[in-house]
Amino acid sequence: MSELLTVRCLTTLPVVTLGGDAVAHVKDTVLGPVAGCNTSFTLTGRTLPSGPLPRDLPWPAVHSLGRHTVMVRDEEALCDLPLSVARRDAPRGRLLGAQVLADEGDALGAVLDVLVEGGTSGRGVAFRLAAHRDLVPGPRHRR
Fold first, then answer.
1. Contact present, 77 and 98 (Cβ < 8 Å)
2. Which range of residues forms the domain containing residue 44?
3. In a domain, 141, yes or no
4. Higher pLDDT, 108 or 142
5. Number of H helices, E strands in the chain
6. Are 142 and 133 in contact (CB under 8 A)?
7. Coil, helix or strand for 117?
8. How many domains does the chain have?
9. In the chain, what is the straight-line distance between the N-terminal and C-terminal CA atoms, in Å?
């Protein structure tokens, strides 16, 4: 069974080649429109203060995903982004913090994080929610 990782813990992980060279850091995880589909990672430079790169790491190029690194075969795994994509509005389509509604429209809570499988899968498997106050009576923990 693969280890479960949160999308938040993937942020700032180094992207390392099989030869041991650090080529970037994970800036964000891009989830596709199909449920459970991790499509790519946006990246920052080799050092965290270096800022965003106009490149991304598509999921098929990931060799392995773990708690400490994202492994790729070589630096050629990173893809240049079209300028239109590199400049797009980052907050649009943001999943963390989004409200979750029941089929009837009742608010259930907000998305705190997404759990993904480590190893070679990277498949999204669950959401971690902050439950709406009305759903949890008393002073209980609301997650």
1. no
2. 4-135
3. no
4. 108
5. 2, 11
6. yes
7. strand
8. 1
9. 25
Asked whether residue 13 is assigned to any structural domain, the reply reads yes
Q: What is the pTM of this model?
A: 0.74
CA proximity to 31, closest of 54, 6, 67, 50? 6
Q: How far apart are CA 74 and CA 95, in angstroms?
A: 30
How buried is 53 (Cβ within 10 angstroms: 0-12 exposed, 13-18 middle, 19+ buried)?
Answer: buried
In a domain, 123, yes or no: yes
* Beta-sheet pairing, 99-101 with 79-80: unpaired
What is the C-alpha separation between 39 and 37, in angstroms, rounded?
6
Long-range contacts from 21-25, C-beta under 8 angstroms, 24+ separation: 21/75, 22/46, 23/72, 23/75, 23/78, 24/53, 24/55, 24/57, 24/78
Q: Does a structural domain hold residue 142? A: no
> Residues near 141 by Cβ (< 8 Å), separated by ≥ 6?
none
The per-residue pLDDT for range 1-57, each reduced to its tens digit, is 468 888 888 888 999 999 999 999 998 888 776 656 677 888 988 775 777 788 889
The enclosing domain of 55 has a CATH number of 2.30.30.240
- Helix, strand or coil, per DSSP, at residue 30: strand
Q: Is the pLDDT of residue 106 over 70?
A: yes
